[in-house]
Amino acid sequence: MAILDLATLLENLQPVLDPKEYVFCTVNGDLNNYLSLEPLAIFVEEEGLTLILAKPQAQSLGACTESTFKRITLSVYSSLEAVGLTAVVAGALAKEGISANVIAAYHHDHVFVPMNKADEAMQIISTLSNASFSLHFLGD
Q1: Which of 15, 64, 72, 129 is at a distance of 20 to 30 A from 28, taking alpha carbons?
Q2: Integer CA distances (angstroms), 14 to 5, 30, 72, 126, in order
Q3: What is the pTM of this model?
C-alpha cells in the first residue's frame, strides 16, 4: 500500500543507484517515431517531446550527450498524494550543490542527478533515512 506519511517515507527510502547513464533529449515529430529507442520516460511539452534515453540510444539519435545523469530510485512505495518527499530529497541535494530532476511514477520516485555526483547523492539520500536527521529536517 502506498505510503502518505513523510516520516515513514524517509525512514524507508531504500535508494537504489541505476548503473546506466541517461540523457534528457528533446525531439520533434510523432512519438511513434521514437518508441523503438525504448525511452525510460516521455513528456509532451509545447516545444516538443522530452525523452529520457539510455546514453547509447541518445547517441544513436545523434542527441547531445554531454550532460549525462544517473537515476536513483527511491524504492519506498510513495503515494502520489504524499506531501514533502520531493522537497526534502531535492532540498538535501541542493544544499550540497547537486541538481535533482525528480520524476514521480506510480510506485516510486526517481531522482536524476549529474553522473559525476551520483555517489555523493546516494550518500546524502541515504542519510535522510536516519531518524534523527529526518526529525530535525522536518522541524519536530
Answers
A1: 72
A2: 16, 37, 10, 7
A3: 0.90
